[in-house]
Structure formats: C-alpha cells, structure tokens
Amino acid sequence: MISVTRNTNPRPKPDMGNLGFGKFFTDHMFALDYNQADGWHDARVTPYANLSLDPASMVLHYGQEVFEGLKAYRADDGRTLLFRPMENIRRLNRSNERLRIAPIDEQLFLEGMKTLIRTDIDWVPTTPDSSLYVRPFVIATDPYLGVQASKTYKFLIILSPVGAYYPEGMDPVKILIETDDVRAVKGGTGEAKTGGNYAATIRAQDKAKDKGYTQVLWLDGIHRRYIEEVGTMNVFLMLGGTVVTPPLEGTILPGVTRDSVLKLLASWDIPVQERPIALDELASAARDGTLGEAFGSGTAAVISPIGAFNVKGDVISVGGGRIGPLAQRLYDALTDIQWGRVPDPFGWIVEV
Ligand SMILES: *Cc1c(COP(=O)(O)O)cnc(C)c1O
After folding, report:
1. Rounded to an integer, what distance in angstroms lies between the CA atom of residue 58 and that of residue 53?
2. Which of 84, 253, 264 most suits a substitution to test ligand 1, by most atoms within 8 Å of the C-beta?
3. Mind giving me the DSSP string for 153-213?
C-alpha cells in the first residue's frame, strides 16, 4: 500500500552532538497526492528532494496550508517511540477542516509516518536529549489565481534530527507581552496550525528579540487584556496553589503538551483552572507574591520556565528567575515517558 523507494545517494550524517533545531533533514520523505477523482492517493516514501511546483500554485499566493509537529524518541532499549501521534493526526484534520482541505485517513497517516521513520531509522539520534522532529504538512497545488479551495493538494512528511532544547540545562526565558499586534480572534484561524498565523507573528517576534526577549506573549485580539499563549507554546501560571491556563475558545492552539500537562496535574491532584487570565491579575499576583511560577508548554521545549514578563516597559519577575519545582516536575515526568524511561500509565507512547 505504501511504496518505498530508497535513496541511493544518502547524505553524510551531521554531528549528532550539535544538531540545533530544524537545520538538518533526512534521506527520505513521505508523500500523498489529492485530487477530486481519486481522493488522497499514491502513498509513498521517496528520496528527500526538491519539489517541482507551478509558480501559480495556490499555496504560494493564498496560504492554503496546514502543518503539524511531533517527535520520535530513541529509548535506551533501542525502541523508537512516538508521543501521542494520534493527537497530532486528528489536529491536522481539524486544521484541514478550517482551511477547506479534505481529511486524511488517520491510519494511513500513522502508517506513512512510521514507514518513513523506519526507512530513516539511522537518523533517530541516540545522543542524550536529542530526538527526531516529524513535520507533516499539506499544501494547495492548483495553478490558479483566485481565492477558492484548491482541487489538488500534496501532503508531505519530512524529518529533522534535533538536539537538546536546553544544551546548558533548563533556563528561564524572558517574555515580552505584545500590546500592538495580535495573533488571533475568535472565528479566525488561531486554533488551526496554518502557516499564515505564524507569518503574522514575525514582526512582533523580531521586536521582542531586539529588546532582548526570547518570545512574545499574545493578548486576546478584542480587549488586549487576557493572556493567550507564547510563541509556539501554551502558557501556564501557578497562582497560589492553583495552576491556571487560558481556555480553548478558538483563538489558541490546543497543544498536545498542554493537554498532557493537564492530565499529569489531575493525576497528581494539583488543582487546575482553564479560565481567562487578565493581565492585571498577572501583575497583581506578582505584586502580592502569589505568582509562584510561569511556564510554556510545547513539543519543541516540552516545558519552558518563564523568568520575567515585560509589559509596556514594566518588568514582572517570576520565581526569582529560577526554575520552579512544578515546571521541573512536569518536564521530568513528560520526558521520562517520552524516552520510555518509566512505565506509561496514560497509553501515550506508540512504538514505531
Ligand atoms: C504547535 C503550537 C503549540 C504547542 O502545541 P504542542 O502540540 O504542544 O506542540 C502552541 N501554540 C502554537 C501557536 C503552536 O503552533
């Protein structure tokens, strides 16, 4: 069902001890094509190669595109493990629905991903804390200048070996709260993983970098008052003894890591609230000492402790700039499951 054409000209492997993120690509890719007569068809693993696209391809003009991101981990016993891949598969299909792209069969998607990873199994890093990042995506390929749903698409999966997110150990990041640009509004595409959402954030991201901040925290698009998410991470605060995180109401990305954090916290009997969090609440909690921790969650970093927020020039520092115990506990619990170092009571791990 899935044909495999091996690359007869494999490239030299990079230094697996110095991979960084998203810089190196493997020898193969997975592809599926879509047209109206055949649906999604021609499942294949082929040598990694440039695409040939008509310059009028609709994705290049109107951004009809979706993507996903997850990782494969090499366990000490040699197995290669995926973390909750069905969540990413279903989320891509929800993004497809929002962008008017036909859904992809979940089992074919999973099998394609596994077949590709098996073909490139030598590329799954064995160096500590390194993993193989998996990037599925769909592009609209009709050569047509006009805004409508394309009638043809290409689905691809590419792989990138990535290094430890924290080569020098987990370090709290500084976040600039963006008060001019907004990322999403209800009814928009904020909860879909689609390229246009990210293109629209680069200006604010560059502004933050110029001021010495790592990432942007987005506020809601209507009131510019409620916190939403950070860059490509969901955000959590420890307020008193309760963990709070913004609710999924259409403007933020429903992170797989976010959901996993919520399930772990529930299993530890730590109270959690999914509710709107106003900027004033963050500032007053910092003032009265009830803001214990802040951290982001996402596939790339897993858990990213936040050491400071800057809002319109005022700096709110969190946890004395040190990693909080809850952020550390969540990071350890998640990575232990992901690397198969502990039993997985949640059924999250899928062997390749
Ligand atoms: C991908 C992404 C996340 C995190 O999702 P995970 O499934 O946890 O990796 C959060 N916010 C945005 C905007 C994202 O694109």
Report:
1. 10
2. 253
3. EEEEEEEEEE--S-TT---PEEEEEPSS-----TTSSTTS--HHHHHTTHHHHHHHHHTT-
Distance CA 159, CA 132 (A): 7
Can you tell me which residue has the tokens 């409620």?
226
229 CB under 6 A from ligand 1?
A: yes
First-to-last CA distance in the chain?
17
Q: CA-CA distance, 289 to 337, in Å (whole number)?
A: 33
pLDDT at 253: 97
The span from the CA of 178 to the CA of 227, in Å, is 10
Best substitution site from 233, 303, 331, 334 to test ligand 1's pocket, by max atoms within 8 Å of Cβ?
233
Q: How many Å apart are CA 326 and CA 328, to the nearest integer?
A: 5
Query: Distance between CA 116 and CA 157 in Å, rounded?
Result: 8
Burial 208-217 (b: 16+ CB within 10 A, else e): beeeebbbbb
Which ligand 1 atom minimizes the distance to the CA of 298? 8
Percent of the chain with pLDDT over 90: 94
Residues 322-342: tens digit of each pLDDT: 899 999 999 999 999 999 999
CA 302 – ligand 1 centroid, Å: 10
**Residue 266 gets which letter from DSSP?**
H
Query: What does pTM read for this prediction?
Result: 0.96
